[in-house]
Amino acid sequence: MDELVWPTEWKDLATELISGQRRTGRVLVTFIFSLTIASYGLYIVDANRVKADPLTGGMELCIAFRDSFVQQVDLVFNLFFIGHFVLRLIASSDKLWYWFDIFTLVDLFTIPPAFVGLYFRRVWIGLRFTRILRLLTLADVLQYLNILKTGNTIRLCQLVTMFASLVLTAAGFIHLVENSGDPPEFKNANAITYFECTYMMIVTITTVGFGDLTAQTTSGRVFMILFLLSGLAVFANSVPEIADIVGSRNKYGGVYRKTTGKSHLVLCGHITFSTVNNFLSDFLHEDREDVDTQIVILHKSVPDLELEGTLKRHGTQVFYFQASKHLLFLKL
């Protein structure tokens, strides 16, 4: 009986740790995300050193482990990634499908080369750029931290991170094939930096096509064709939706959050420039003692230019919301 109970307990614990259901899980998810972005930053450092390395001219750096601070830090990061990999494996309900998950593939592409390179005393840049795909989980992390709360902001974050992940991953791949050269001899390598590859991907996906940077290898050109066909579809679908979300944002929407130690006063009814200005002139008069009360103005319409100017002059003490009074009272 114990043999059946223990695996279930492990699975429940692993699920809690990687799903963010509790504070411990949210901390772990945020921690792994931060390590992944930091690991991607280390990849950029190494990628920019490849072009200047006179010994290899490819995607490897001949640096002893004890002399490479970047490799040492990245190895520590990969130890944490192994632990997270195991937790996800235990928590998965379908062990077969788990091996085809995008983040499982990222771990398989990046963790083994770190230890193989340690044995051979080399740093292989390779597929480490795939770490940036973890950026796709940014919306989940920001929800755990209570930064994203509305559907529009969550969707906007998903669209932006999807576009950024696509461009940065494609830039890493073109950096790999261009600096490696065409198989099987790999003799026509094109020395190009990761920043230049990113620039080339952005120019390509936006169909600007300046032509100042182009792929020189056959592998790179084939990939550019595939990227243009797929990336353009993503770009064409994402940009209009991003524009709609940004355009639909209400400047005077949101929720008023009471500041600890300060009282607030709700002002509603006949809201015009003259009524608000007269009220503020009297309520915030210099002959009064220091007034430490925040004023919340509630009205169904957007303020006109005169009233907007008044709001800006009292920006730290006066807050304007375009909503019904019933909605505001519920939130207060």
TrEMBL record:
Does the UniProt entry include the keyword Transmembrane? Answer: yes
Q: Which UniProt keywords apply?
A: Calcium, Ion channel, Ion transport, Membrane, Potassium, Potassium channel, Potassium transport, Transmembrane, Transmembrane helix, Transport, Voltage-gated channel
| RCK N-terminal domain: residues covered | 261-322
Q: Does the entry feature the keyword Membrane, yes or no?
A: yes
Q: Name one GO molecular function term.
A: large conductance calcium-activated potassium channel activity
GO terms for CC?
Answer: monoatomic ion channel complex; postsynaptic membrane
Spell out where the chain crosses the membrane: 27-45, 75-91, 97-120, 156-177, 189-210, 222-239
Q: Which residues form the Ion transport domain?
A: 63-249
Q: Which domain of life is it from?
A: Eukaryota
Q: Which InterPro entries does this chain map to?
A: Ion_trans_dom (IPR005821), K_chnl_Slo-like (IPR047871), RCK_N (IPR003148), Volt_channel_dom_sf (IPR027359)
| Membrane topology of the entry | Multi-pass membrane protein
* Subcellular localization(s) per the UniProt record: Membrane
Q: What is the name attached to this protein's record?
A: BK channel
Species for this entry: Protopolystoma xenopodis
